[in-house]
Amino acid sequence: SQTIHQWPATLVQPVGSPLSLECTVEGTSNPNLYWYRQAAGRGLQLLFYSVGIGQISSEVPQNLSASRPQDRQFILSSKKLLLSDSGFYLCAWSEQGEAFFGQGTRLTVV
Amino acid sequence: RKEVEQDPGPFNVPEGATVAFNCTYSNSASQSFFWYRQDCRKEPKLLMSVYSSGNEDGRFTAQLNRASQYISLLIRDSKLSDSATYLCVVRGSNYQLIWGAGTKLIIKP
């Protein structure tokens, strides 16, 4: 069966520090991969999606970037975090139907 | 107009009651539809897919109205544990999933 792993679960980082969140999927090949951010009490905001290795589509221009170095690995990065980058970050995978989420990373930038 | 719209609620409903939410979508070419449940500070989890003919899973019934471009979720005999935010999701003609902002449901004893 397919599983998705996302880590860390919580993270507190100072303003200006770098960020790297990793997500891996097992049990499937060539999945569509997504990074979302959810502010408190708000809906999901799509940040990036990828339909294959090295293929990244950015939905919202901002302080973040994404990479897909391997088929089942999706990384969210920032060179310098801003206070506004705080939020709940969710990685998800899908094939042609529904999406399945990792446990999420709660990022607090201080 | 947002691509997928939901009433944010909250819907305050007594335990045992029936509650229904709708979700409207703007892209008539949308291909598939889902309802997710999200508990506070947790990731969304798939509740059920929505099929053209409507489908039922226990106390939950989902329906699709393509002509009016909305999907609905009906919860019968609501339980305290049904309290959550319910997200509707629409898959378009590409690989993107368009999410509603969610409807918050609070079941009161």
Task: Describe this structure as you would to a colleague.
The complex is a heterodimer of chains A (110) and B (109). In chain A, 0% of the residues lie in helices and 59% in strands. Chain A has strands spanning 3-7, 10-13, 19-26, 32-38, 44-52, 55-58, 65-70, 73-78, 87-94, 99-101, 105-109. In chain A, the strands form two sheets. In chain A, strands 2, 4, 5, 6, 9, 10 and 11 form a seven-stranded mixed sheet that branches. The radius of gyration of chain A is 13 Å and the shape is globular. Chain B is built from no helices and eleven strands. Chain B has strands at residues 4-6, 11-14, 19-25, 32-38, 45-50, 55-57, 60-65, 70-75, 84-91, 97-99, 103-108. In chain B, the strands form two sheets. In chain B, strands 2, 4, 5, 9, 10 and 11 form a six-stranded mixed sheet that branches. The model of chain B has no long low-confidence stretch (mean pLDDT 93). At the A-B interface, strand 5, strand 9 and strand 10 of A face strand 5 and strand 9 of B.
Number of strands of chain B: 11
Mean pLDDT of chain A: 93
Assign an overall shape of chain B: globular
Low-confidence runs of chain B: none
**How much of the sequence of chain A is in beta strands?**
over 45%
What radius of gyration of chain B results from the CA coordinates? 13 Å
In short:
The complex is a heterodimer of chains A (110) and B (109). With 110 residues, chain A is mainly beta.
SSE map:
The complex is a heterodimer of chains A (110) and B (109).
Chain A (H helix, E strand, L loop, with lengths): L2 E5 L2 E4 L5 E8 L5 E7 L5 E9 L2 E4 L6 E6 L2 E6 L8 E8 L4 E3 L3 E5 L1
Parallel strand pairs in A: 2-11
Antiparallel strand pairs in A: 1-3, 3-8, 4-5, 4-9, 5-6, 7-8, 9-10, 9-11
Chain B lengths: L3 E3 L4 E4 L4 E7 L6 E7 L6 E6 L4 E3 L2 E6 L4 E6 L8 E8 L5 E3 L3 E6 L1
Parallel strand pairs in B: 2-11
Antiparallel strand pairs in B: 1-3, 3-8, 4-5, 4-9, 6-7, 7-8, 9-10, 9-11
